[in-house]
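Late entry, SN-glycerol-1-phosphate complex.
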Amino acid sequence: MRPQNHSTVIDYITTRTLSPRHATLIDPANQSPEVAANRALTTIDAGSKLIMVGGSTKTPDEQVHATVQAIQEALELRIWAESQDANAESGIDWNIPVILFPCGAHALSPDADAITFMMLMNSESREFLVGEQHRGATRIAEFAIEALSTGYLVCAPGGEVGQVGKATLIQANDIEGVMGWAHCAAMFGFKLFYLEAGSGAEVPVSPELIASAAAVSGLTIFVGGGISDGDAAHAAVEAGANWIVTGTLTENYHDLADLRDKLSDLITTMTQSSS
Ligand code: 1GP
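Prediction complete; structure with ligand written out below:
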C-alpha cells in the first residue's frame, strides 16, 4: 500500500516539510495504459511525487481503470525488482500514490490509492458543486479508496474545464475573490485547494492569486494548467504552491529520455531557492 511511511495519502500529500513537490497528471483519453505506465515511471524517475489520473470529460470507467491498473502494476514490478537486487540503489522511492482526478462520477477505479473529491467552487452548475459527487460517493465508499476533500477553483483562461464546468472564471487580479473561496474551502473542512488555469492554458494561474490562497491556513495548495517550464513552476512555488501539477508537458514528449530530462530540469528549477 502506498505511500510508505505515511498512514494515509492525505498525510503524505499535506506534509509541509516535503513541499514543494511535483505531481504528474495523466489523461487516459490521450494514451494507452501501457504508454501511461511508462510515462508515469519516467516522471517518477525525474522526481515527480504523485501520479494523478483523469482529465477528459468523455473517458469511460474501463479506460480509467485500465490505466490505473497498468500504472500500479508497473510500480509494483519496479518495487519488487529493486527489492530483489541488493546492489540496486537507484535512490528513487517508487512508493508513489496513484490518485484519481475525476471530471465526474464515471471516471473511477477501485485500484486507485485515493481520489480528489472535489467541489468546483466557482461553478454555476449544481452538477459540479454537489451533483457528480452525490452520484459517485457510494461507489467510492464501496471501493474503500481514500477521499481527499478538495476545493477546486478555475481561473482564467480556464480552457475546457472552465466551459464544461460552467465556471465563472477567476480573473488574474481577483485577489479578494480567491481569498474568499480559500476561506470558504477551509471552513468547509477541505484539505486541498486546487487553483486551475485549464489544461494547456497559455497563461498559468498568477502568483498573486496563489499567494492570496496560500495566506489562508489549513490548506495544501495545488496549482496547475499551462505550467510548461521551471520558471513558471518556480514562480508558483515562490507564491506559496505546495504542489505543481503538469499534464500536457508529459504528453508532449514521445521519447521517454527527453521527457525525463525536461521534467528533471523543471523540478530542479522549481525547488531552487531564490536567494
Ligand atoms: C489540468 O492542471 C492540469 O487539469 C494540468 O494542466 O495540462 O496545462 O499541464 P496542463
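The CA atoms of residues 138 and 262 lie 40 Å apart. Will revisit in the morning.
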